[in-house]
Amino acid sequence: MERLDEFMARANALYYASHDPFADFTTAPEISQAFGEVLGAWAAITWEALGRPDKVILAEAGPGRGTLMADAIRTIARVAPAFHAALRLHLVETSPRLRAIQAAKLPGATWHDRIEDLPPGPIILLANEFLDALPIRQFVLNDGQWTERHVAGGAWVEQSCPPPANLTATAPGLYETLDPALAQHIGDRLRAAPGVALFMDYGPYASGPGDSLQALRDGKFCDPLAEPGSADLTAHVDFAAFARASALPAHGPLAQGKFLTRLGLFARINRLAQTVPPRAALRLTEAGRRLAEPDRMGALFKALALTSPGLPTPAGFEA
Ligand code: SAH
User: Of ligand 1's atoms, which has the minimum distance to the CA of residue 26?
Assistant: First the structure.
């Protein structure tokens, strides 16, 4: 019998080491190059807000195929050469397969297994669809009694447990938690040196009950407990809990569509569209709408920025 977070960690490590995740799902940077380009521009503005440090870590957690960062760096080289000269590229990735794909696109990067292993100093950290892959625990409150969900032989087993430390819920229901250690670490490092961390992922605006664990295999939802390692396991991100655990100034969560539009997603797409034949221009516009429209990826996906104390509101998050 395993606790859900142990099961999820084991299953996802197997999955990412043995599969091309992008055969099972697609992500924003793979949909449009403009996604990484506007985030590159955002990082350049953020570097200015940090006081233009002459050495800064530009890091990405869970870079997938390296597409977001390659698009971002290309933009940074063009629009902010001083930032380009100052940045040191660090990638957090556990999968050897994906590291090899990233290395082909991002020569000169340094790889780490965990965010905690990044070197100290000023940092701009990006993470798209990273937090949703991290192992969660699930607790059930019923008749005033807490149980924790475990997995045994492909089925759920509930074990009674003391009230979970980081849950204050009193209404019956299922509650999910992420180990607060990562958010606490980010809090500590952004208090020790200036930095901004941007997390983009899907999840609700506010903490609440609900089972959001899901598994994708061959592009279809399947039983998360069956055949560990054969499907991508994710959960919705509780941005509010993550921000709380960091104890940092937090901005958002803000709908992805609003954030990207404020950063000039469509201005960028229109520029790109002018350089290609009409049919390709239509495809570019359609990709931008997929990222930004509320009934598509624009509202379920959100952006959360955590900053060192005393920094201005990051670009795109102004009230
Ligand atoms: N950001 C990319 C990929 C998202 S998929 C994109 O938007 O396309 C999740 C990524 O996080 C993959 O690169 C996966 O290998 C990595 N990952 C998952 N769990 C991880 C962990 N615990 N530590 C480090 N990387 C992890």
Answer: 8
Transcribe 166-181 into DSSP letters.
T----SSEEEEEE-TH
Pocket of ligand 1 (CB under 6 A): 12, 16, 21, 27, 29-30, 62-64, 68, 92-95, 98, 128-130, 133-134
**Ligand 1 centroid to residue 236 C-alpha, Å:** 15
pLDDT at residue 24 above 80? no
Q: Count Cα atoms within 13 angstroms, Cβ side, for 3.
A: 16
> Could you tell me the pTM of the whole model?
0.97
CB 293: neighbour CB atoms within 10 A? 12
Task: Write out pLDDT tens, residues 269-300.
Answer: 999 999 999 999 999 999 999 999 999 999 99
Angstrom distance (rounded) from CA 39 to CA 28: 11
| CA-135 nearest atom, ligand 1 | 22
Amino acid at 294: P
Whole-angstrom distance, CA of residue 56 vs CA of residue 60: 13
Summarised one tens digit per residue, pLDDT across range 62-84 is: 999 999 999 999 999 999 999 99
Residues 124-170 have pLDDT tens digits of 999 999 999 999 999 999 999 999 999 999 999 999 999 999 898 99
In the numeric block, the tokens 């890091």 are attached to 59
**Among 93, 97, 126, 136, which is best to mutate for testing ligand 1, by the most ligand atoms less than 8 A from CB?**
93
Domains and CATH numbers, the chain: 2-134+178-307 (3.40.50.12710)
Contacts of 143 (CB under 8 A, 6+ apart): 172
Using CA atoms, how far apart are residues 227 and 214, in angstroms rounded to an integer?
Answer: 14
- Compute the distance between CA of residue 142 and CA of residue 265 in angstroms, rounded to an integer: 46
179 burial class (0-12, 13-18, 19+ CB within 10 angstroms)? middle
- Residue 171's CB is within 10 A of a number of other CB atoms, namely 8
